[in-house]
Amino acid sequence: MQKLIKFDKTIFILLIMFAIISIMTIGSAQKLLPDSMNYLMSKQIIWYIVGFILLLVIVIKGHNIILKNAWFLYIIGVILLILLLFFGTTINEAKCWFTIPGIGTFQPSEFMKIILIIVNAKMITDFNENYENPTISQEFFFLLKVMFVVLIPSILTFLQPDTGVVLIYIIITIVMLFIGGIRYRWFFLLFLIVGIIIGTILIIYFSNKDLFIKLFGSSFFLRVDRLLDWSNKSGYQLENGLTAISSGGFTGYGLYNTPIYFPEPQTDFIFAVYASNFGFVGSSILLILILIFDLKIIAIANNSKKNTSKYILAGIIGMLLYQQLQNIGMTFGLIPITGITLPFISYGGSSLLSYMIMMGIVLSITVENNKYTNE
Fold first, then answer.
1. Tens digit of pLDDT for each residue in 106-138?
2. Model-level pTM?
3. pLDDT tens per residue, range 64-112
4. Cβ proximity of 297 and 317 under 8 Å
5. What distance in Å separates the CA atoms of residue 239 and residue 242, rounded to the nearest whole number?
6. Contact (Cβ atoms closer than 8 angstroms) between residue 308 and residue 289
7. Of 14, 19, 70, 209, which is most buried with the most CB atoms under 10 A?
8. How far is CA 15 from CA 157, 275, 277, 342, in A?
């Protein structure tokens, strides 16, 4: 129990505050949903209880057992993504979940995010230890290895389809490689290639939609079409979400009072529910809490003595920052809507448990840092 005394209390307290905010806001979101979904708040409470238990187990036992089994977890994750294509449950035209009778749904891609962070951290650490001053060719073949490892779950997740999570896989990897000391020229080359690919896709989309559908299929066309809704602030979900936020004023309507319906209030547009309930003041408080939370994880990374821990924390903070900016930004119509949830606030058992596992690793690293400091 000595380890429990030494982990970072700030992160733990902020997680408790996020839990309270999440449960209250999901309870409010239920007012916009059918009576058949009145169980969401109760289930979120259960997920948080299970999540805190997992977190404490990881803190007590240490995160090294997860590191040692990284490749085994990767293989399990890939197998689950493959099985999902055949046996997954289709919800909103996406086959992203397994249905577990009596429990609910299980989304493997949420856990693949943390698996990729761990696997990438191990690969980067091993590469830097084996090659103190790597040549261009050595870096190139290492990057090919990383690309192959990330590409497999990315393709399987894209086929579900879940483009938003694929973007998270890529962002996690880019941030970790950047922190890992890979030469900057590779990032310039990557952004150039990605820019050319995206530019070509958009040119075909705007110039000849029939050709676009023939080349990429109608499913991908609909995804691109949805992404571009934000450019003219069109779309029922976005318009109603913005109306709910703006009408909240300075202090909001109060808990359980969201004035207008919009789709997915419990997940994608949870911030719109919160903002309409608590207004500018409440929204500012939540944003400040998120900022403190992120800065604390960055500080823990800076204090880490082990490179592997730094890389893990880089991947976690890269993922969190992207999801926070993406979710809140799309709610305001500043960024395309991609179905990305707000970490620790949006409803979701798989996502919440994966975040709590990550936080268990973060707190385990603080225990590790304290041990090195005391020595």
1. 899 999 999 999 999 999 999 999 888 888 899
2. 0.89
3. 899 999 999 999 999 999 999 888 888 777 788 888 877 778 899 999 9
4. yes
5. 5
6. no
7. 19
8. 28, 20, 21, 14
Q: How far apart, in whole angstroms, are the C-alpha atoms of residue 28 and residue 328?
A: 18
What is the Cα–Cα distance from 125 to 133, expressed in whole angstroms? 14
At 73-82, the pLDDT tens digits run: 999 999 999 9
Torsion of CA 305, 310, 313, 319, to 10 degrees: 170
Q: Which helix (H) or strand (E) holds 105?
A: strand 104-106
DSSP secondary structure letter of residue 235: S
Question: Taking the C-alpha atoms of 108, 94, 225 and 287 in order, what is their torsion angle to the nearest 10 degrees?
Answer: -50
DSSP-assigned beta bridge partners for residue 201: none
The DSSP 8-state label assigned to residue 98 in this structure reads E
CB 345 within 8 A of CB 237: no
What is the C-alpha separation between 289 and 324, in angstroms, rounded? 12
